[in-house]
# Entry
Amino acid sequence: MSDIHDQNKIRNFSIIAHIDHGKSTLADRILEQTHADLGREKRKERVLDRLDLEQEKGITIKLQAARMFWKGHQLNLIDTPGHVDFSYEVSRSLAACEAVLLLVDAQQGIQAQTISNTRKALDLGLKIIPVINKIDIPFANIEQRERDITNLLNLPKEDIIKVSAKTGQNIDLLLDAIVERTPAPKGDINSPLKALIFDSFYDEHRGVVVAVRIVDGKLNMKDKSSHVLTMLQKGENFSPTEFGVFAPDLKETGTLSAGEVGYIATGMKDIRQFTVGDTISNKKDTTPLPGYKQPKPNVFASFFPVDAEGYDSLKVALNKLALNDAALVFTDQRSNMLGAGFRCGFLGLLHMEIIQERLEREYDVDLVITAPTVEYRITKTNGEELEVQTPDEVPDPSQIAEIREPLVRLEILTPEKYIGAIMELARNRRGEYVNTIYLNEGGAEALNDVYIKLMYDMPLASLVSNFFDTLKSISNGYASMEYEFIDYFPVDLVKVSVLVNKEEIPALSFLETREDARFRAAKLLKVMKEEIPRQQFQLPLQAAIGAKVIAREDISALRKDVTAKLYGGDVTRRMKLLKKQKKGKKRLKMIGKVNIPQGAFLAILKT
# Structure
C-alpha cells in the first residue's frame, strides 16, 4: 500500500501497561492484523522486542516503533518500556503520540506503574483508550476490572475495549477505535523543521539512527535545507545520510513530513551526541520542543573482571553497550583487591541488572560487582561542594559541614491484606509515611480485592539495596512500586572502615547512617568470619568509624597439637612446648600477612 501523506489520515499512538500485561503480544497481533511486512523468518514472539534479553525477560527495554495501515489510515505505534527505571523514556515516547492504549490485565488489574504512566499521558493531553486484555483466561474478573478503570481513571465504561492479544479476539474493533478516537496530529508542514528524538540506537551501516516524530516542517533528501540539521539543545550539526520509516524494520523513503514518525540515519559514531528529548531542526534559531532533560544516573556500582586478562574485553563490551544506551556512563577504577575495572552509573537497579546480564551473555565477560550505591553531596567546612559515590572519596570528618542524600517519593500499590508487612518494610528502610489512598471502593463484591496506594518519602539508598525484591516476596508478587526523585536532604552519614588483622581493606568499606552502621557492620563481619580461611594465628576482624571500633569478630588460629608426641612424664615439659608455640604465634601475628582468597571476597561482596 502506498504511503499516506494526508496529515488527517495519520494516527500516532502508544501502549502503556504494567510488565507482563501483554503489551508486546498485543503489538504483534496489531502488526499481523494490519498485515505489516514482518517477513516469514521474523515471526518470532514479540516482534518489537529485539534484544535476546527482552525476549527472555519478556520486558521492553529499548523503544521501538512500527508503521501500519488500516482502512486508509497510517497508524504509527510507538512502543514504550514499562519499567520504573525507564520513566523518562516513557514520558518522551508519549510526547511523540496523540493517544495511548491503556492496557489492563483482566486477572491482575491496574498496577502502580500504569497509574503513574497514565498520569503522564493525561498531563501531555493525550486521548486515553482503555483496553482489558486476556479476556480468554478462565478466572478473569472482567466486571471488577471495568469498575477499577471507571473508579481509578474516571473513564466511561462504554469506552473500554475487551481483547485477547493471545488469540487475536476483537483486535479489529481495537484498530477501528484507534482510527476513530485518536486525534490527527497538529503541525504546520510549512514551518521550520521540528523533530522530537524519542529513541536512538547504533546501526553498523548507518551509524547512529535517531527515531523521531516530525512535529512541524518536513524532511526531503532532494531538498537542500535537509542536508545539514542541528540539534537545538546540544547545538551540534550533522549531515543525515537517509530518512525513512519503521515498517517495523528500517525502510528508506527519502521524505518525512509533519505528523509522521520515522528515523534519521546520521552517519555519526557517537550516540552520546543524540540525547533523547532533544529537537532536530534545519534552522539554528528555532525554539526547541519542551520537556528535554539529560538522563542522569542514580545508581552506581563498580564492575571488575574476574581475571585480570578480562579487562580489555570488558572495556570493549562496555563501549559497545554505551553505543546503544546514552544513559550508561562509566569511568576507569583501580582496586588493590580486584585490580582494574570500571565505575558505572545506571538509571536504576533494573538498568544495572540488564547491563550486567548483557555483558555476561552477549560479550561473555565474567564479572565481580560491588554493592550498588547512590551519589551523596557534601559541603566542606571551607564551602567547597563535592559529589561522592564511594567511601574513598569522603573527606576527613573534621572537614565536613553537611552531607545530603537523594530522597524519592515512593508509591506502592498493593492489595489491602499486605499493608501491615509493607508498612513495616518501609519503616525499617527509613521511609517517612505520607499518605494512604483507597482506590477501588466498589460494592461489597469488590471488598475482597481492595487496592491501596501507600506513599512514602524514602532515601534512594534504602531502595537500591534489594527493596523491590523484598516487596515482591512479602506481597506474593502483587505489590508494585513507582518512585520519582524529589531532592537532596541532610543525613547523618558515616564511613565504616573494615579491618582485617588491624589493616584496612578499602574495597569492603561502606557508607551508612550512624544509626544503622553498627548493625550492618556486625552482619558483614559475621559473613567474613565464615568466609575467610583460618590462619596460623588468631585473626581479629573489626569495623570502625574513624578510630572508634564499633564491631568485632575473631577467627581462631589453626593449632597443631605440639604435645601429641609426649607420653606421661613431667607436666612442665608440656607447658614449655605450649609456651613456645604461643610465642611463635605471637611473632607470626606481627609479621603475618592475610590474603583473602577471591572466592571469599566475592561471597563477602554479595552481602
